[in-house]
Design goal:
Rossmann fold, 4-stranded mixed sheet, 516 residues
Length: 516
Amino acid sequence: MSKQVMSLLWTIDSEKTTFGLSKKDMNDIGIDWFFDYFEAEKQEDLYTLLGEVPVDIDDIQYRQGILDDFVNNPDLFEKLLMDGQEAYHQMTLSKFSFEKEATVYNLIKRVSEVDNIRTMLEDLLENFHQAKIKSPGLIQYHELLQEIVHSRLYEAFIRDVEKIKSLSEGVKSIKIGLNLNDYLQPVEAILLDVSEEEFKYGRFDKKIEYYVTQGVKEVMLIPRKIFAKETVAPPDALNSLEKIVEPAMLQLISFCDQFTQKILQVLSILHQDLPYYDVGVTMHNQLKKRGFEMTIPEWGRDYKVKGLFHLNLGMTLEPSQVILNTIHLDKNRPINILTGANRGGKTTITQSIMQTIWLGQLGFYVPAQSATIPLIKEFKVHFPREEKETVNYGRLGEECNRFKAMFEDSSKESFFFMNESFSGTSHHESLQISVEILQAIYQKGSFVLFNTHLHELVESLEDKINSEAIQSLVAGKDMDKSPYIIEPGRPLGKSYGIEIAKKYGMNYESLIALRH
């Protein structure tokens, strides 16, 4: 049987290089709502699984292929999920001490376990046979299962197991071979056969019937009720039979346990790795069912996504109600500043871009019609925190401390996502801080998407760094005709805050009218 150990998450030669996302980071990305689709006790495990993001392209593409196979072969996926859970359950079952003793009952119980594992394994292979898989990961796993089933050890052992026709009727007799010494004393024994038929005496057997009849009381005293077909030794010798047969029985029981454990270890890979894919399959199926397009991204130098939408909107609105965006972030223009109208979609599009990169690197489908995304080595997420989290330093102090730690730990391969950062002070001071931190990010060579109400930021930054390195994006340029569209362009110079306030009656005339 193969000793090969594999994973459905990592390639064979993988160094398992990842970057981590905290639970708060994932909530900032706007994915926390999705965990409600899973049982509460599983949610923390999912945060752990999805917070470990691979950065090796081979590992990512390995996962992409497996997930695509699972989406296109739902019956196989359900079978693998079920068998993985059952295999893990069987592996974790503990046995009482008496279940490890050399008894016929324990041996038959082990043989029954082997037969159940055999049935599970061969049913699973039939599911693989009917499925159309393409991914190297699942092909390799299928070959591993086939290697087990076609091994000489497996075939020989299963032939022995199949001698038991009906376990429900019980075993009526066992046949044990005895090796005798010069005095016809049994010195060692091996199990030769089990049978549903009671033992019948032949002509030769009747010659020694006397010894057996006289020794039946002694035989009944043997706790494990092990009975030999024949013995020409005096009945007292039967009392020593238990000790002689015990090593053989223990050996067989131990062999059954080793046999089942090796197969269960291979099957338990499913329990370990498939909850990860269950997230990707569920997300894909839920959004496709609602009429949204999902795609497996390709990998390139720039970020180019067409038909991009926010996952949360996909789960709460109809496709006709969701604005799709086309976004291009050029690697040669690493400083991306997003301004625009209040409620124009700045935070939504920032989260949407994060979702595609994060989910893409997990090997999942992304919420878009088509996508080419760059490989990111680190996410740096800088969103405002709740008021209770800023008590010690104040909002601005907390944001500055958090950014400093984030920046010290960053590299030129990091991608900063910043949402209304440093807005907890005056407009002038916020602008100055933002200019300086963007200068520092530029000098380090990192990528950044900075979402802000500071419309002067682009012009102020152009005086400090090469303007060719800056891309200005505008959200909701025309809130009446094309709301929530994100496109390149110079900042509007206003956020439509006054217009929104008037819409809700928050102007002087409307408020004064409330006196009456």
